[in-house]
C-alpha cells in the first residue's frame, strides 16, 4: 500500500503535463476541505476555489504545459516535504516561468488535506 510520500510524488507526476492534467490531478486528490496555501499569494479551500486560483494564474501566465521536477522529498508521518521546480511552457514550447518551491503536503491516503508552498513571490 502506497504511503504519504508515494502518494505525494504520484500527485506531482500526475500534475506534470497539460493544464488539464494539472486540474485533473487536483480534482482526484483534493477534497471539499483541502486547504491549498501559496504563502504570500493566496489560500484556497476545496477544488472549486483551487480551480478559480488556477484560472487567475492562467490569465497572467497562459501556459500550455507544466513540468514538476521534485529535487528532494521527505516524509514524517502523513506530512511530506518537497523541494521542487514548477516549470511552465507556452504554446511555442518555450519556458515562460520557472518557480523553485518548498512545499508541505498533509496526506490522508491518496488525498491532500493541506498543501502549503513557499517561494519567492516578488514576481507576483
TrEMBL record:
Organism taxonomic ancestry: Bacteria, Pseudomonadati, Pseudomonadota, Alphaproteobacteria, Sphingomonadales
Domain Limonene-1,2-epoxide hydrolase: start-end pairs: 23-121
Classification via InterPro entries: LEH, NTF2-like_dom_sf
Designated name of the protein: Nuclear transport factor 2 family protein
A Pfam family recorded for this sequence: LEH
Organism: Sphingobium soli
Top-rank taxon: Bacteria
SUPFAM superfamilies to which the protein is assigned, alphabetical: NTF2-like
